[in-house]
Specification:
By secondary structure, the protein is α/β, with parallel strands linked by helices. The protein is built from 10 helices and 28 strands. An 8-stranded parallel beta barrel has the order 3-4-5-6-7-10-11-12. A 5-stranded mixed sheet has the order 17-18-23-24-21. A 4-stranded antiparallel sheet has the order 16-20-19-26, with no helix packed on it. Helix 5 runs parallel beside helix 6 and helix 8 runs parallel beside helix 9. The protein is elongated, with a radius of gyration of 26 Å.
Length: 643
């Protein structure tokens, strides 16, 4: 097929995605009326859960916790508008050419109709404790003030730029006790999420510019402790010609871009923020006979992120009934025969949710992290039995699995967007889920008020993957401060507080942990780069015939480097207590050699792996340069932790 025909076909087939994708609102044509029972006409309002939580937030295993270690479950909603509402066709000045007829003017919706204090009061009554607040990169750089009409109910905001209005909204939310998660939703201020110039973080800008904007935004709110998170990019997906990928190391590598931005935010702007990484939303061409998929978080199983702070990563995914694990959400042209989520039985849906996302919450894995469903939703006017049943099923799943969530959207205009939880007419009168007659209220109240885990979450064992597939993975702030310790080599170092416990024979992967001993490293910046056998004691040949890179007495391995597959060096640091000089050799050049419990899971899929026991540390790495042999790590010296 010629490129011209290919582009024409893809554009034609994917055009419906601009309306019917994960952030879209209800279809224009209502489904047939359902016989499902309506909710009570006067539902009890949800109990306010803003509470007395203490920022900053971090993670412990699958849970988000506050600074006191208490569970903070994200019960959130999306206050959209600042990402843009123009649908990309017709006049940008005509509201009819904006999503659902709502011209947001690049600021959060509703400020023309309702004063901020009233909005905050309504949010509290709704029961949410946090808000996902989308923005566009264009919003950051726009210097033209918003029209007075866009902030008619908040006259103090007249003459402000979109970013200044965004500032005021952040302040209002955090002053009211809500946690705010900043969300880079689009590059340009345009309604997403099809072939619209916003498919990837770098569709309309470079990756460097995108990361720079994130550093700017994180710094801007760094003094506000209730700004708790950076949701890096929304619904990464295919453009006309290219798919995003997870780990290929090219310009479309979402895994690498998220790693770069997350580490830059934590080291250059605000070390207190949660870093939220959404899975890949769409790859391939949505037509039967062509490969197409919604990978979501499936790739995390074999390639997970490790940030400079091992307790700041949150993964996220989006689920809507009209989409599916292989269905774009389109109807008519571009629709495939794949199941939508709303077409699945309850058991099928639960299994797909586990496979696509919630397996990540399994404790004791290199990928273990909280999973935040940062978008799901349905229209108040939805009458279809399948769609209504799906909404009940998925909110039941969130309840049963104690899930962190964010409904889409929070605020809309009455008569325009019936998906919004709260809708306001031109006079500021409120309609929606708080006001009776909304069939969604039963499921929403069940989700908001059902019991989940609360209180103190004890720290558990942390496992983190190191991947040098395409470059460095130096995740220690202390090591970064000391400069480049093996110039020209690919280097990997465990985050501060963790030690190296496993290595792969090929591919450059490693595994870090704090099992049993916690942070083993002594205070100070002392470190030793070992490139030869000078620290192997006399009579201590623990890998005969192999080159042994062994730490000096009293030190342990936190990092390694490689040139190609060949081991280049190991990085050793002093222990806070004198570790044992004894040890055992763990060989893994011909097969896996790991503890029976396989703690940390498969950190180097497809490669032989060696791993010390939970009560040990790595004191040395052995390899060979014999002709015909793989020069990667072949054995490690595992020594008992200090008692």
């Amino acid at each position: 097929m010629s490129i011209t025909k290919f582009v024409t076909l893809v554009t034609y087939l994917t055009a419906p995605l601009m309306v019917l994708t994960l952030s879209a609102t209800a279809p224009a044509t209502a489904a047939p009326r359902s016989t499902a029972p309506a909710a009570s006409a006067t539902p009890e309002p949800a109990v306010s859960v803003t509470g007395t939580w203490q920022p900053p937030l971090s993670t412990r295993g699958r849970y988000i916790v506050d600074s006191a270690g208490n569970r903070f479950r994200l019960k959130a909603a999306n206050w959209d508008g600042a990402q843009g509402s123009w649908n990309g066709s017709g006049s940008i000045d005509d509201p009819a050419d904006h999503h659902a007829g709502q011209d947001s003017h690049g600021i959060p919706l509703g400020l023309d109709r309702v004063p901020l204090p009233q909005l905050m009061s309504d949010f509290r009554t709704l029961g949410i404790n946090s808000v996902r607040l989308p923005f566009s990169n264009e919003m950051i750089h726009t210097t033209t003030p918003v029209p007075d009409a866009a902030v008619a109910a908040n006259p103090a905001l007249r003459g402000e730029t979109p970013l200044q209005v965004y500032d005021a909204v952040v302040t209002a939310l955090t002053d009211a006790g809500f946690a705010v998660i900043l969300n880079n939703h689009t590059n340009t201020s345009r309604w997403c999420c099809g072939i619209d110039g916003n498919e990837r973080w770098n569709s309309s800008q470079s990756t460097g510019q995108w990361a720079d904007d994130w550093v700017f935004m994180a710094r801007r709110y760094a003094a506000n402790p209730r700004v708790v998170g950076a949701d890096l990019y929304n619904e990464v997906r295919r453009d006309v010609l290219d798919d995003p990928n997870w780990g290929l190391g090219d310009a479309h590598d979402w895994y690498a871009a998220a790693q770069l931005a997350g580490d830059r935010i934590l080291t250059e702007a605000n070390p207190n923020l949660l870093i939220v990484v959404e899975g890949i939303n769409w790859t391939g061409i949505p037509v039967d006979g062509f490969a197409h998929d919604r990978p979501t978080l499936a790739p995390v199983r074999t390639l997970s992120h490790t940030l400079v702070d091992a307790h700041k990563l949150v993964y996220s995914a989006h689920f809507y009934g009209y989409t599916g694990p292989h269905h774009s959400g389109a109807t008519g042209i571009g629709e495939t025969s794949d199941l939508r989520y709303q077409d699945m039985t309850r058991d099928q849906l639960y299994q797909v949710l586990a496979d696509q996302a919630f397996y990540v919450t399994t404790e004791g894995k290199h990928y273990t992290a909280p999973v935040w469903v940062s978008e799901f939703g349905i229209g108040a006017g939805e009458t279809g039995t399948a769609a209504r049943t799906w909404f009940g099923n998925i909110t039941d799943y969130f309840t049963d699995h104690d899930t962190d969530f964010a409904y889409w959207p929070l605020v809309g205009w009455e008569g325009h967007d019936d998906w919004a939880l709260l809708r306001y007419d031109g006079a500021g009168h409120r309609y929606g889920i708080l006001d009776g007659g909304d069939w969604r209220a039963t499921a929403w109240d069940h989700l908001m008020n059902s019991p989940g885990r609360t209180g103190y979450i004890a720290p558990g064992t942390t496992w983190r993957m190191l991947a040098t597939d395409h470059g460095d993975a130096v995740e220690s702030v202390r090591v970064r401060a000391g400069g480049d310790w093996d110039s020209g080599a690919y280097k990997a170092v465990c985050p501060d507080g963790l030690r190296l416990t496993g290595l792969a024979h090929s591919g450059g992967r490693g595994l870090c942990t704090d099992a049993v001993a916690g942070d083993l490293r002594a205070a100070g910046q002392d470190r030793t780069v070992v490139t030869d056998e000078r620290y192997v004691p006399a009579g201590g040949d623990w890998a005969s015939g192999y080159t042994k890179l062994q730490c000096p007495a009293g030190q342990f391995v936190i990092g390694y480097s490689r040139r190609g597959e060949r081991v280049s060096a190991v990085l050793c640091v002093p222990a806070r207590a004198t570790p044992s000089a004894a040890g055992r050799t763990v060989w893994f050049d011909r097969s896996d050699n790991r503890p029976a419990d396989a703690a940390g899971d498969d950190f180097a899929h497809g490669a032989y792996k060696g791993q010390c026991a939970a009560g040990e540390y790595i004191a040395g790495v052995a390899f060979t340069t014999r002709l015909g042999s793989t020069p990667g790590p072949a054995a490690v010296l595992c020594a008992p932790l200090p008692s």
